[in-house]
Each structure stands twice: as structure tokens, then as C-alpha cells.
Amino acid sequence: MSDTVPMPPIKRYTGVMDWLTTVDHKKIGLMYFWFVVFSALIGGAMAGAIRVQLAMPGATVEAMQAAALNGTTALSLFSDANGMFGDRHLYNQMVTMHASMMIFFVLIPGFIGFANYIVPLMIGARDMAFPKLNAFGFWLLVPAAVLQLGSFFVVGGAAASGWTAYPPLSLKAASAGPGQDMWILGVHLVGVSSILAAINFIVTIVSLRAPGMIWSKLPLFAWATFFVAIIQLIATPVLAAAVTMVLMDRNFGTTFTIASQGGDPVLYQHIFWFYSHPAVYIMILPGFGAISHVIAAFSHKKIFGYLGMVIATGIISFIGFLVWAHHMFTVGMPTWLQAFFMYGSLVIAVPTGIKVFSWLATMWGGTIRFTVAMKFAAGFISMFVFGGFGGLLLALTPIDMSMHDSYFVVGHFHMAMVGGSVMLLFAMTYYWWPKMTGHMLCEKQGNWIFWLMLVGVLMAFMTMHLTGALGMARRVPVYFKDFLVLNHITTVGYALTFISSVWFVIDLIRSYGRPKVTENDPWHVNDVQQSFEWATTCPPPVYNFEQVPPIPVADQMGKH
Amino acid sequence: MLRPLIALLMLCAAVSTAAESPVVPAAEQVDRYVALFNQDLLALDDKRRVVTPITGAFDAPASDIARDVAQATWFSLLVFLPFLVLPQVLLIWIIWKYRKRQDGRAPATFTGNHRLEIVWTAIPVVALIIVGIPMWDLLYKMEAPPADQRRDMVVEVRGKTYAWDYKYQRLGGDVPTTRGDQFEVGQDVVGMQEPIVLVKDRRVIMNLTANDVNHAWWVPAFGVKKDTIKGRYTNVWFTPEKLGFFKGQCAELCGQGHGIMLISALVVDEADFAVWTETQRHRADTARVWSALSGTTVDAKALEDAVGAYLLKGSSPWRLFSLRYWIASNAASLARKPGELKGEALKQAMLARRVQVEALINRLTGPTTATN
Lengths: 560, 372
Ligand SMILES: [Cu+2]
Ligand SMILES: [Cu+2]
Known about the structure:
- The complex is a heterodimer.
- Chain A is an all-alpha fold.
- Chain A has one domain (15-54, 88-556): Cytochrome c oxidase-like, subunit I domain (Cytochrome C Oxidase, Chain A, Up-down Bundle), CATH 1.20.210.
- Chain A contains 17 helices and no strands.
- Chain B has two domains: 2-37 and 282-365, no CATH class; 49-268, Immunoglobulin-like.
- Chain B is built from ten helices and ten strands.
- In chain B, helix 1 runs parallel beside helix 5 (270-281), helix 3 runs antiparallel to helix 4 and helix 6 runs antiparallel to helix 7.
- Chain B is elongated.
- Classes of the chains: A mainly alpha, B alpha+beta.
- Bound molecules: copper (II) ion (2 copies).
- One copper (II) ion binds at residues 277, 280, 326-327 of chain A.
């Protein structure tokens, strides 16, 4: 009887309600995008607070001591007592939340957002495999961000034990307020969101590829997203386990990490880094895939060494699970174990090198249009090679014993994450923005944005390497006067980077007022390759393609 | 060749027959040692330049480990440098050479080159092996306990929010630990820390632990850094190779005071180290004298009682020297305490007190030592 009841009409919303209820991967992708932009501005402003503090005359211990002896206060943003904006505790909150925002709400969802929009198009699908799950995954980020940012306003402020939340510092005795608990719950929500996205990408890529798109023709961005989804699926529950131990130790009387009661704080570090090393690949590998398309498109060539690229990405993903303890060489480990993690970390340089050389070979012999997207792609290669070079030195345990937890490390990962990941995200935006919104970004302003960013990144993060090698520890609000000049240079570099980023956001907003793109393929990508996302309108219709995309596509490997 | 040997003999003599040691410095030497052991990590000169510049492991290694680390760093930098420079140069060159021009050149169509791919996989592997092999030895040198530890100094380093405690467990030179040569060096004033005193060319073995949250002990010039973790001991060892005063800081986020959890390390020769250990031995006993002195006015009776009690417990040359040393040293460190007299006023006030103590010593110990 029930099958005779007619389906109720599906309610179609418009305007804001449409965005709130949408399960369209493209709209969700754009919502990810703007959520990430918003988080990045907040996280960037926090970095600003840190950099301003470190450029203050009162940021040297010498000035502090002099002030203490004279009974005055040194000029400082986060001063010891009665400071204008608060105190050292607030500084540690800034350090913690800057990292948390940038990692959990910018870099990880940044690439997930792009993959959300682009991967289904690339593989010729009409949507993700589980559209509602997709929407749920995105919307989980909102309470997660509210929990983490909202913790600034509770008693004791936000979490202040670093994004690594090492116990005992993150336990009740040292971090009493609810901010740390809210941070942990926020991480849980981000984790669930990540896992849901991972499941969705895996199923989508496995089962929704257009007929004829065999694995050896899968675009590299889809490949990278696939590998990253597997990493996320395996690693994220481990992060949840780590922070849950802290949550339980804080609130429910367990002693996982409490040494005096039989627990072990180092256990937490191992579990935490088992997630967090692979997490750095979650924050960059999808971009590796995407940038291959950008470089090929603007070099007017096909991707060089497609198979090598896929294998390299796979190897990086796999070895990524075997090197976590290189983040904790100073913790005291058996020597053979340190050797294992040292050599394991070095091995990652090989597949990474393959990728860099293949990008260069892709450009070789092409007719390169040096558009803004291409500039950011080139900037990424250059900065990432710097970052990787620092990583090579850090992988060498004896050297890391000196570099660990110094500004060298801060310089290294900012080089990889800003010079690398952020430049990737910018390149991807310039490349796919017309597809995603139907509007072009301004090339002229883009040039300024690129060069400002490049100079800023070099000034800020190259300098940090030097500061650290000379002996400045990270996460400090004050430092020896020896480092004054270097810190000033870094702060100027930060300012350039931030100005460039804000300018970029302004251009994003203004682009909506520009005339619509009328072509399907404004970059003429498909003159040389055939990529499905350029075979439909800008932006694509709700159902993505008028018909199942033309099959077979030109072989990515070029053997047709 | 002879010098270290003599120094060693002198030290052995100094510790084994502490009371009658011939190397007790003369009373006039007090100021020299006060200056040596009370160096201000954060001092600035007249031109507001740093008096003790920071030195890193890579630019000015000051221990055997740091020297090896510096060497390893420059070596690996050299081997890896082509992998930094080559891609950058290639990148710029390719962008320039293959830029799109209006010459109608068609882009190349190759999509792979197996021989090339094998080459750029193999060459990095070779470079990694070249760097990786010597790293093995260095790693084991840094991390596997040294075989012969008889001459080593053993210090327990305890991180606590936000200072360091150093407990000398064994002063080395085959001294049995039962001789009571354990003493602690603690925090001085905010942002300042009494130095850990080490001996040039004598290996120190550090056992590190923490009282509360994790910290990390790091003096860049020594090339070592180790976490201090409650409930465990971690270890480092190194042989300081340069005399001098070195600075470092806590390298693991430990809370609000993380940035001011500084470290100072003083490397001296054997003779000065003997003076330091002897003065440390009698330090606690001098506290009563100092407290009698440190008020705004000095109660002559209380002072005499305190000095008398000190001398009653022993009046060896080392004890006399130690008393003079600590009175002067405590006075000097007042300059680094908030709310105390400063500059000339402080100097005068403390000089007066030293004279008072000196007079008492002379009176109470009779004419034999009064010649000093
Ligand atoms: Cu890692
Ligand atoms: Cu600390």
C-alpha cells in the first residue's frame, strides 16, 4: 500500500537557505573555500599578534631584566604584568591557536574544499558518492571552529599548551581552564569531519569514475586526493585517541599520561605524531597533484612522468607513516630507533625529488605562459625546495638535536606550509577560480600579490632558519637581544605576506562583480590535454555535465 | 702535555685533602672569583651591546659534540647543496628559455624519459648514502653511553617551572660519591639562573629530569639538547672545549615563563673549578652570616655570633676563603635583584660589610691568618 503514496515534492530553497541546505559538491566546495579564507584571516591575524610582540623593544630578556630592576614595564604586547592586551598566557594561547587555526581550519580543509569541487568534475562524476555526508562533514567544521575560537572567552582563556598539547602541560595542573577541553573537543569534530571526507573521496574515486577512466588515466589531483584520503582515514582516529587520553586524564581520573601514577607522557607524543607527521602530507600532497595540472596547462604540455608521479605520491604516503618520531628525537629514545627514524625520513627525499624534477621536466620544452597561477606554481617549487632542504638537515638526528624546537624548525615548516601549501592554494585558486565561480581573478593585481608574497615568505622564513641555527628557541615571547635584528626582518616579511593575502581576498570578492566567463576552457587547457572539468561550463551546472563526458579521454600517459 | 696532568694532580690533591689544600686562593682573589662566578647573562655594555653574545653549535662549537655536529652540518650542507641550487637555477632558466613567444614554436610533446627518471632517483639516493653513513657514527657517539666514565662529572639536571636545578652527583677524578660532594645550584632571580659550572676538557654526563611539565635543556654552543621529562631520566654527555660563559634557554614550551627559562653555563679550568666546588661546599654555612648582614642596619652582636659559629665549625683556609667569597658574592648579586640598592650606593654599603666581616675573621682566628 505504501508504494502507492506519491513522493512529497522536494522543497527547493533559494538564497541563504539554499547554501545552508545544499548537498551539491560544488557549493560545499565553495563553502569550504570561504570558510578557509575566513579562518586564514583569523589565524593570520594571530600570527600578526605574535610577530608584533617579537618586534617590540620589550621582547628582549635584557630589556625585561632592566625593567624589572627599575620597577618599570618594558614595552611589549604581551607583557609580564598589566600589559595592554594581556599577558604571557595570552601569548601562548596565540601560539597555540594560530597553529590550530592554520592546520585544522585552513590547510587541511583548504585542500579538501578544492578536492570537493574539482575531483568529481575531473573524474566525470555528477557529485560525490555521499552528498549528504559531504555536507555534514563541512558543517561539522563550524561547531569545531566555534569551540576552539570561543574558548578565548572562557575562564582561563583558550588552550595554551601548543597545538601539540603535550602533557603534562595540557593536563589540569598546568592548564586548569576549560579552554583545553574545548580545544580537544574541537579537534574531535575536525577529526570526524576529516574521516567523513576521506570515506567520501575514496568511494567517489573508486566507484564514480566516468566509464573508460581507468586508474592509469586518473588525473594526478584525484590520485593525490585518493592517497590523502587513505592517510586521513588511517591516521585521524589515532589523533582522536591521543587527545582523548588527555581529555580523560584531565576530567575522568585516568592516568594515561601521568608519570607519578604509572602513565607516560612520552606515550602521548608517539601517538600524537603518528597522526601529525602524516598530517603534514594531508596539508600538501593534494596540492602536489593539483600543481601538476597547473604546470602542464601553462606549459602547453602533458604531465611528465605520470606513472612516476603516482608512485612517488604513494610512496610518500606510505613512508609518511614510518617516520613520526623525527619530531621527538630529543625525547630520549633507543639509539637504533633514532637511526631508523633518521634513515626513514631521509628516504622521503627521494620520491619528493622525483616530483620536483618531473615538474621541471613538464615545463621543459613547453611554451610557458607566465600567468599568476603559473607564477605561484613556480614560486611553490622554489620555496618548497628550500623547505625540503631544511627538512633534510632536520632529518639528520645529530643535527636535529641542535635544531629541534628552535626557530630553524619554525622556518622549515613555514617555508613548506606557506611557501609550499599556501602558494599551492593560491595557484589552484588562480587556475580554477573561473571554473568555480565563472569569474576571472585580476592578473595585474595577481602579479603584485605574487611578488609581495614571495618576498615576504623569503624575508620571514629564510630568516627564521638563521635565527634558529644561532640558538633561538620557538614559542617564546621574549628572546636574547642577539636575535633582535633577525626578528625585525621576520616581522617585516610577515607584514608583506599578510598584506598580499588580504589583497588576494579583496580581489576574490571583487571578482564576483566582473563579467562572466563565457568559454568552458578559458586557459585552453584542453588544447593539449583533456581534463573533464574544462569540458563543461563555468561554473558547471548542478548536474555537472550535459552528458557523460567524452570517452576515452586522451591518455594522461600520452600513449594513446 | 704536562699542563692537564698537573691540573689533574692539583685537583686530586684539592678534593682528597680539601682542608689543607695548598691551592686555596689568597683573600685578594675573592673579587676575581666573584666576577667569574657571577657573570650576568643579560649584561649590556655602555653601547648597549650584548656582553656575552650567543654562540651556536654551527658557528662557534664549544664542545666535542658541537664540533662534530658542526662538521656534520657543513658536510651535509655541501653534499645537499646541489639539490637546493640546481632546481632553483633550472626553474628560472626553464621559465626564461621556454617562455611563450610569438615565434610559432610548438611545445614539445614528450611525456616521459625512463633513463632520466632513473638518474634523478639514483643520484639523490647516492647523496643520502654519502651523508647517512657518517651520521651513524655521530649518532652513536652522541647517544650510546661512553665506555669509560671514571673521570666524568655527573650532574643531575632538573627542570622546573621556570628554572633549573643542578645537582652535582660526582665531581669526577675518581672521587667516590660518598664524600658528600653532592650539592645543588638553584635559581637566582627572575630571568637569571646560577650557571652550571663545567670544566674544560672534562666530560660531563647529565641525567635530566623534570619536576612538573616537560622542558628541554639547550645550550647551543655545546651542540646538545635534551627534553627533561617527569618520571624519566634522559641523558646527554659532552666535553666542553672552550673556556667561557655560554647562554641557552629552555626549548620545550612549558608555560608562561618558557621564554625566561634561561640557562647559563660557565666553563672554567680545573683550578678554578676546585675553588668553585669548595666554596659551594661551605655555602650553606655562610647563610647565617649573610642574613645577619643583609638588614638595613647590622646588629654587631648577631654578626659576631654568626661569624663565630661559622668559624667554630671549621676555620680551614678554604672555609675562610668561602666565607669571604659568599659575602662578596651575595653582595654582588644584589645588583640583579629588584628593589635593592644599585650602583655606587650598593658598592659602598657592601664594602663596609665586607670590612666588618674581615675584621671579625681576623679577630676570631688570631694573628696567623690576620696577615691576609
Ligand atoms: Cu614529520
Ligand atoms: Cu620551557
